[in-house]
Design brief:
about 300 residues, mainly alpha, 13 helices, about 75% helix, about 0% strand, globular, membrane, transmembrane helix
Length: about 300
């Protein structure tokens, strides 16, 4: 079955799930690059802005300017929220345990569900609420060994990242049919422009190895992955987009275990299985319900 023959919802699930899988080596590559946070933010912002712009240019051609203008003021707000989520994630890892950051980020689907319910009046079925709770539990099990009291400042940054991510996807739902992914170019420029203020010694050039990993991560993987994720709200409620985003946590953790040789605990394995299993079962249930609805409509049509 070709992509064009898929249902509206199936397209959304495929695009949104592919994004986290593409960016899943993010945490691993950040470890391999090993730059100070301000330097990482600067190069991440600059290169991702270039990568996002190339994607927009290839997709839109001579209509590129019109694509940006179509996003309007909402698009600028989306770019700002994406910038805040970047800062929250990087600075959260600086001031508290990585496990705390991931555990708080796992609350993004719940935040998105509440924001959508309050501002957009979107009602989620019971199975989605159950999936959110189970995925939150599973992610907590994955990072249990790396979690702890941490710093209130680091936890606050992580909460900022989770809230910004959820608010970003929810805000996109206010402009149905408008693809906000081009505004990630602006978000990258915002990150790059503000990052040097965090650095005491200015911006330094990375070495050849660091530059290679930066190009792979920030010029290729992040622009491709987040372009797909940012298109998710065109097809799915923001809570479901945030839910699928948790795939990045599970698969990203597997990358670190595999490449760096870290041995996961049995509890962490169970947590990963719970997240993936929950998303798989929910997907199968949704697909079956969609098929039944289609079969019920077609005979009467």
């Amino acid at each position: 079955m070709s992509f064009s023959n898929l249902s509206y919802r199936q397209k959304g699930l495929l695009l949104t799930a592919a994004g986290p899988l593409i960016i899943s080596p993010d945490a691993l590559l950040i470890k391999l690059i090993d730059l100070p946070d301000s330097q990482m933010l600067f190069w991440r912002g600059l290169l991702t802005a270039l990568g996002f712009f190339i994607i927009v240019l290839v997709r839109s051609g001579r209509h590129t300017i019109a694509v940006f203008r179509r996003c309007g003021l909402v698009g600028i707000a989306v770019a700002g929220l994406f910038t805040l989520s970047n800062y929250g994630f990087v600075l959260g890892n600086q001031y508290t345990k990585g496990g705390n950051v991931l555990m708080i980020l796992a609350g993004a689907p719940l935040i998105a569900a509440l924001l959508s319910r309050f501002f957009l009046r979107e009602r989620l079925p019971l199975r989605t609420w159950i999936a959110i709770v189970l995925c939150l539990l599973g992610t907590s099990l994955i990072v249990l060994d790396d979690a702890g009291p941490g710093s209130w400042l680091g936890n606050a940054f992580a909460l900022l990242a989770a809230f910004s991510l959820a608010a970003n996807f929810t805000l996109c739902r206010t402009r149905p049919g408008i693809d906000m992914s081009p505004m990630l170019t602006l978000a990258g420029l915002m990150v790059a422009a503000s990052a040097p203020w965090l650095a005491s010694g200015g911006v330094a050039l990375p070495n050849a190895t660091q530059a290679g990993w930066l190009v792979l991560l920030c010029l290729i993987l992040i622009p491709l992955g987040f372009t797909l994720i940012q298109r998710g709200p065109l097809y799915l409620p923001s809570a479901e987009v945030s839910l699928l985003f948790l795939l990045e946590t599970v698969v990203g953790t597997l990358w670190v275990w595999w490449v760096l040789g870290e041995t996961p605990s049995h509890i962490a394995f169970a947590g990963g299985a719970l997240v993936i299993g929950t998303l798989l079962v929910k997907g199968l249930i949704d697909r079956r319900r969609e098929r039944r609805l289609r079969e019920a409509i077609e005979p009467g049509g």
